[in-house]
């Protein structure tokens, strides 16, 4: 028996809960959010530190507090949530979604529109191929965060952190708070991977050493991690001979990047962007399959949860409009291209149906006055700086697109002044 739904949302993190809210506010009658975890909230369940919601709620909240507000709004609007529910099949021809749940069994859902909000996952140790043994004591930073904040377990007493992603920076401080030593944070690039505020609040305030252009080159230990060898790297990220040194530790936390979680997206047959690793979307957050939308870190990895929630609201509303026949399957698609200093960006197409925000990250930092712009003459804004660890935005009015003559492509970039 196939259950009919207006909008089905896969994943109940910040983007998914907001998408449910957006769909209901747009008038969708049956909105169902399925979540494989036992509770709602995604990664924010374990982010007990403050710093969330400054833009959305105009006050500083912890991750659980931020999610509680969205979840309450979604419940009040009539969004239906199904936890402990795993999606294991999406039929790319009919968009039928198959789920399994211990109590409900196997179910086939036939939604008029789907929103993909599965979030992202951490890159593991195998992604960087460090030589040495594989002893216990090596964790991704997010796994360690869950152990400490939700399970009540300490991963170790003396830690080295590889990579300077935001979760790694936050876990450096968290380990200190719990009485552990942090020997240092090592970043292979010549610039930080996380937000500058996290470097100041999590490293500088606690005297944790931060080493740029340095990486772990070998792992030592059999049953338990005993130490790592670190070395400086050249401009090609090749270890420099003679700079190696041994660092004693029993814990190695990895903060070496996040990857959009897109196995289900590939199963559904939507186009995946080769650089972002997420679905190719337009400003309505519609994928190459007109009935499937995507939002949040499953599309492109954001730095602020406010952007993730905002995008979820848009995707949910767009999916509701599509389910009601208010969005054509053949909308206008003007391609967006990145300039020479743009590493990744989203969306990749502009429709002119609504005002659009294009999010992007620069390839190399600009530590001085610069300009973010969209050509031909669609947007220009002066910035104090631009850094790879922080998102930048281009805002384009729908009226500009509708009034443009012979607009075949939009180019975005950030360049020094």
What is the strand and helix layout of this fold?
Blueprint: E1 2-10, H1 14-25, E2 31-34, E3 50-52, E4 61-62, H2 63-77, E5 80-82, E6 85-90, E7 97-101, E8 105-116, E9 120-122, E10 138-140, H3 141-151, E11 158-162, H4 166-177, E12 181-187, H5 196-203, E13 210-212, E14 214-220, E15 227-232, E16 245-248, E17 251-254, E18 258-260, H6 263-268, E19 292-294, H7 305-323, E20 334-338, E21 342-346, E22 349-350, E23 356-362, E24 370-375, E25 379-383, E26 392-396, H8 398-403, E27 410-416
What features would you highlight for this structure?
3 domains; alpha/beta; five-stranded parallel sheet; 8 helices; 417 residues; seven-stranded mixed sheet; FAD/NAD(P)-binding domain
Rounded mean pLDDT score: 96
The helix content is 10-25%
Text of the CATH class of the largest domain: Alpha Beta
CATH architecture descriptor of the largest domain:
3-Layer(bba) Sandwich
User: Structural class, judged by helices and strands?
Assistant: alpha/beta
Number of domains: 3
CATH topology of the largest domain: FAD/NAD(P)-binding domain
Global shape: globular
Query: First CA to last CA: what distance?
Result: 62 Å
Radius of gyration: 22 Å
Low-confidence stretches: none
CATH homology superfamily of the largest domain = FAD/NAD(P)-binding domain
Instruction: Please report the total strand number as a whole number.
Output: 27
Specify the biggest β-sheet.
7 strands, mixed
- The helix count comes to 8
Per DSSP, what share of the residues sits in E-state strands of 2 or more residues? 25-35%
């Amino acid at each position: 028996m196939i259950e009919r739904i207006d909008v089905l949302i896969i994943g109940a993190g910040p983007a998914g809960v907001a998408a449910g809210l957006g769909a209901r506010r747009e008038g969708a009658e049956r909105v169902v959010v399925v979540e494989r975890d036992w509770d709602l909230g995604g990664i924010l369940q374990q982010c007990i530190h403050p710093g969330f919601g400054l833009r959305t709620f105009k006050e500083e909240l912890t991750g659980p507090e931020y999610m509680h507000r969205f979840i309450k709004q979604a419940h009040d609007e009539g969004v239906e949530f199904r936890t402990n529910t795993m999606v294991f099949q999406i039929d790319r021809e009919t968009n039928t979604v198959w789920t399994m749940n211990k109590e409900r069994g196997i179910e086939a859902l036939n939604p008029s529109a789907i929103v993909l909000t599965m979030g992202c996952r951490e890159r593991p140790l195998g992604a960087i191929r460090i030589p040495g043994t594989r002893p216990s004591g090596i964790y991704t930073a997010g796994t360690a965060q869950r152990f400490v904040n939700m399970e009540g377990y300490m991963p170790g007493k003396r830690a080295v952190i590889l990579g300077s992603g935001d979760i790694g920076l936050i876990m450096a401080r968290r380990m200190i708070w719990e009485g552990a030593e942090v020997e240092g944070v090592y970043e292979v690039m010549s610039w930080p991977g996380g937000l500058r505020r996290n470097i100041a609040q999590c490293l500088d305030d606690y005297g944790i050493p931060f080493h740029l252009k340095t990486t772990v080159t070998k792992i030592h230990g059999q049953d338990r991690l005993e130490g790592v060898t670190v070395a400086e790297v050249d401009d090609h990220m090749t270890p420099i001979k003679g700079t190696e040194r041994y660092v004693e530790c029993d814990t190695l936390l990895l903060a070496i990047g996040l990857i959009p979680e897109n196995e289900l997206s590939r199963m559904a047959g939507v186009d995946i962007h080769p650089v972002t690793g997420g679905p190719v979307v337009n400003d309505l957050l519609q994928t190459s399959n007109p009935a499937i939308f995507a939002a949040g870190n499953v599309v492109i990895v954001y730095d602020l949860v406010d952007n993730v929630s905002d995008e979820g609201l848009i995707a949910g509303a767009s999916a509701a409009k599509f389910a009601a026949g208010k969005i054509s399957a053949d909308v206008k698609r003007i391609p967006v291209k990145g300039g020479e200093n743009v590493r990744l960006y989203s969306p990749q197409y502009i429709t002119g149906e609504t005002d659009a925000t294009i999010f992007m990250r620069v390839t190399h930092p600009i530590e001085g006055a610069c300009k973010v712009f969209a050509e031909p003459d669609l947007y220009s804004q002066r910035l104090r700086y631009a850094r790879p660890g922080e998102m930048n935005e281009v805002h384009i009015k729908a009226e500009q697109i509708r009034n443009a003559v012979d607009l075949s492509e939009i180019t975005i970039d950030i360049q020094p002044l």
